[in-house]
Amino acid sequence: MNRPQAEPWVPADDRGLAYGDGLFETVLVRDGEPLLWPQHMARLAKGCRTLGIPMPAAAELDGLPARAGAGLKVLKLILTRGSGGRGYLPSPVAQPRLLWQAVDFLPQPQRWESGVRVRHCRLRLSVQPLLAGLKHLNRLENVLARREWDDPDVAEGVLCNSHGTLIEATCMNLFWQRQGCLETPRLDGCGVAGTLRAALMERLEIREVSMGPAALAEAEAVWLGNSIQGLWPVVRLDGADGSRHGSWKVGPVHRVLQREAHELLGYPARFTS
């Protein structure tokens, strides 16, 4: 395997660059210690099995967080199939290319405290069960969805699949409480199975459901979350046309799930409301 690079130079024939043939992970690292590392490595391993890319050795991966340095960092790992093959047909003997980069990170505590405004996206995610849950390099759908708005007051966009079923936000997972039960979209056809989502489902009873946007109209609380930003309460949901579809006041019901998430990430777990 090619050596990991902190300042990556990728040749034009790299299959990750040419075809999106690879995987990536973004890991929150605090003073050299990675958060939710087992969940990240489990997802990476699943992706490697699915794509048929050899998983890097544990010793090679486990040493990278310490190289991120002191303070709060985001460590990005990119694993491609490497170079070789003919067109879409890969070489029968893959020589993966592992790249990494660590950057400083500042969370947004005002979004933890006061919540966020989000909107529905017009784009619909394609259904492809073989790739469902993976954090693969083909993220054009997310790029196109994120281009739908430039209003700084809108923090995220909610995505449905081509059948109209709720899936996720552009870069976060979606959770809600309905009739006293915690729920999150089932990701068996598309979407990214986030590592914070996985860790919360190990701790709490969170039902995976296949439901349309009407479920949010029935919700007592809605959140967006990932392993970098933590958990944001949703206080307003707009349609793709800007019309208001729902609103919530941040209260104690939001803080229960938020405390669980933030304990996992080392973020503040106590709030004023």
TrEMBL record:
Pathway: Cofactor biosynthesis; tetrahydrofolate biosynthesis; 4-aminobenzoate from chorismate: step 2/2. Keywords: Folate biosynthesis, Lyase, Pyridoxal phosphate. InterPro entries: Aminodeoxychorismate_lyase_IV, Aminotrans_IV, Aminotransferase-like, BCAT-like_C, BCAT-like_N, Class-IV_PLP-Dep_Aminotrnsfr. It catalyses: 4-amino-4-deoxychorismate = 4-aminobenzoate + pyruvate + H(+). SUPFAM superfamilies: D-aminoacid aminotransferase-like PLP-dependent enzymes. Its EC number is 4.1.3.38. GO terms for molecular function: 4-amino-4-deoxychorismate lyase activity. The keyword Acetylation does not apply. Its cofactor is pyridoxal 5'-phosphate. Homodimer. Belongs to the class-IV pyridoxal-phosphate-dependent aminotransferase family. This is Aminodeoxychorismate lyase. It comes from Billgrantia antri. The lineage of its organism: Bacteria, Pseudomonadati, Pseudomonadota, Gammaproteobacteria, Oceanospirillales.
